[in-house]
């Protein structure tokens, strides 16, 4: 069993420790997603965009450090965070740019759309995760896809010249973060207009792939307690919006399967 899954099981037993002060929000219920009933495809995407782009609090890039200490806290060691691709537990204080530290991994690579670290897409907690600096560097701005040799810095992950395949335990997490970004950022608020396509390329266009792999990953790795709790913390304490695909992973196919055809 991977460390990431062990953490998920431990989290279930230690919900009180991880979620101290985090209320069970009604946001995941019908009232938060009012207006989505009966919709699918582009109509559902538009409705969800309006919901998750409204009344949002944006963070500075500096504020992200503290937020990740809570959203990705190790339930067994509350002063630590769990890194994304290997599930390693590291002290929250051990963040920075040194090779022995963890950094802020942009799951939607910030060069794909050139949004950098600006408030909004560049600081959105729904796609920022802790990761060791060498792993962050090896993943770089690669798209996501199956295949490639084992990554040098990240056991259980694979990579080639233009793609990264995370370990099975977090493939769904990665997919749902990518799908969130494509719905949240439509260009109307001065930010990028992000799209998911079925290609891999390291260009700077506001797109990322590979859609077919991400659809499979969402189906194969459903949301676990760690991911759901993370969504709740971001909603209740920081940005006040949710990743709808954690609450309703079935909406991924409704919106993006059509886009693949």
Automatic annotation (TrEMBL):
Residues 135-168 are annotated as: Disordered. Pfam families: Endonuclease_1 (PF04231). Residues 1-29 form the signal peptide. This is Endonuclease I. InterPro entries: Endonuclease-I, His-Me_finger_sf. SUPFAM superfamilies: His-Me finger endonucleases (SSF54060). One of its GO terms (molecular function) is endonuclease activity. Keywords: Endonuclease, Hydrolase, Nuclease, Signal.
């Amino acid at each position: 069993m991977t460390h990431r899954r062990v953490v998920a099981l431990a989290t279930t037993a230690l919900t009180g420790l991880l979620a101290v002060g985090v209320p069970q929000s009604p946001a995941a219920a019908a009232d938060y997603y009012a207006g989505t009933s009966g919709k699918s495809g582009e109509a559902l995407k538009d409705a969800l965009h309006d919901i998750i782009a409204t009344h949002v609090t944006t963070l500075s890039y500096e504020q992200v450090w503290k937020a990740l200490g809570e959203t990705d806290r190790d339930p067994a060691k509350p002063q630590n965070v769990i890194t994304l691709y290997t599930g390693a537990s590291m002290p929250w204080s051990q963040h920075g740019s040194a090779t022995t530290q963890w950094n802020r991994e942009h799951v939607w690579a910030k060069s794909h759309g050139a949004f950098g670290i600006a408030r909004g897409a560049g600081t959105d907690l729904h796609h920022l995760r802790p990761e060791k600096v060498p792993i962050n560097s090896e993943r770089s701005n690669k798209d996501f896809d199956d295949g490639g040799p084992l990554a040098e810095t990240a056991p259980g992950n694979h990579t080639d010249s233009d793609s990264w395949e995370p370990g099975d335990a977090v493939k769904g997490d990665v997919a749902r973060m990518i799908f969130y970004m494509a719905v949240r950022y439509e260009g109307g608020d001065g930010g990028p207009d992000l799209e998911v396509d079925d290609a891999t390329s390291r260009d700077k266009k506001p797109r990322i792939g590979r859609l077919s792999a991400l659809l499979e990953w969402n189906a194969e790795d459903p949301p676990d307690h760690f991911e759901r709790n993370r969504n709740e913390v971001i909603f209740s304490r920081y940005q006040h919006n949710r990743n709808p695909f954690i609450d309703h992973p079935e909406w991924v196919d409704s919106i993006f399967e059509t886009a693949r055809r």
